[in-house]
Amino acid sequence: MVSSATSFTSSGMRDWIVQRVSAVVLGLYLITLLVFFAVHPNLQFQIWHNFFYNPFIKIFSFLALLSMVFHAWIGVWTIFTDYIKPTGLRLFLEALMVLVLFIYLALGISIIW
Asked: What is the DSSP letter of 42?
């Protein structure tokens, strides 16, 4: 079996599972936020602050952030390997994507915590 150095788990099946689990986490997070907005139609800063100050929501937000990074990396890596054939261009775009996802992760962590 050939493994790729840029794949997330070096196994197609594990990548598939990670992407599906991350999609479920993101879906549950979206539902949580939609319910919160539906319950609080006149949202004030204090309500918003109290909601995100809750440790459960902080942890859930962090898991959603990690899920977004993993989900995005696997999806973009798959698209790049399928459609961008020049190796140099593909590696450049993958490195750029890693940088962008790392920035998103760092900013997200600083915002959540």
From this structure: S
